[in-house]
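Assemble and predict.
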Amino acid sequence: MSSMVLLTRKIEFAASHLYNNPTFSPEENRRVFGKCNNPHGHGHNYTLEVTVAGEPDPETGMVLDLKDLKDILDREVMQRMDHRFLNYEVPELAGQIPTCENIARVIWRLLDPKIKQGKLHRVRLYETPDLFADCYRNGAGGAKSG
Amino acid sequence: MTPGAHNGELKIELGRRYRFAASHRLHNPGLTDGENYRLYGKCNNPYGHGHNYVLEISLSGKIDPATGMIANLADLDVFVSSEVLEPFDHKSLNEDVAAFRNAVPTTENLCIEIFRRLKPFPNAKLERVRIEETSNNSFEYAGDGPEGFEG
């Protein structure tokens, strides 16, 4: 009998970024990215929700130890991104526009190999309370169960 | 479930929240007044009442490497504004929205109507509409057929 459970941990970090594609003209950058193209950048308080799926271990009752997840998030996300300028200080984002979608994907790729108990199910990154990106493994996505 | 051949091994969705305030009255003209009151309770009050609705939409698509985006937010905001916010905000759903001349404006039906209006958004695939009628009640719709929650 399967008793899959989802567990979610939330963290917050603050970072700055700007959107600029060097292959666009300055006018095109302003047209496509609007005020996000401001050359000195701007910042957000990002909220990250990380959801892990798994069956509770019969010994511990846990999908994974939240403290382990906290350590992974601290190492992989907080130390890399908190109080950083995402364009210049996060090598995994080099050459990419640091949109919510791209940051969520980078975070997924950082976390997925580190989570050994349970399986990474969803990464949701809020740039503001009204704008977020979700990342799923293909075939397990959306609100639909997979 | 659609084959998510969008972003390699990952499926990425963009979520965006909007707000509008509108009034409605739950009333089925095919029922007697007594039946309507028993069914809908205070939501059947003849003069209607209102909510601050929160609309959350989810879109999927390929991240454009040139912009880092599934859909340009400015385009999305203009589309949602003209299709939903302008026609619904500070309106009576029963009186001002044609779809609710013949359907009871429950939030279930509102999800279906808003999904229908937003589905043609050209630059990404509408996955889902979620509406909070109040902070305690929310409703979701993902279309019918294999793309919906049944699929």
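The domain at 5-136 of chain A is CATH 3.30.479.10 (Tetrahydropterin Synthase; Chain A).
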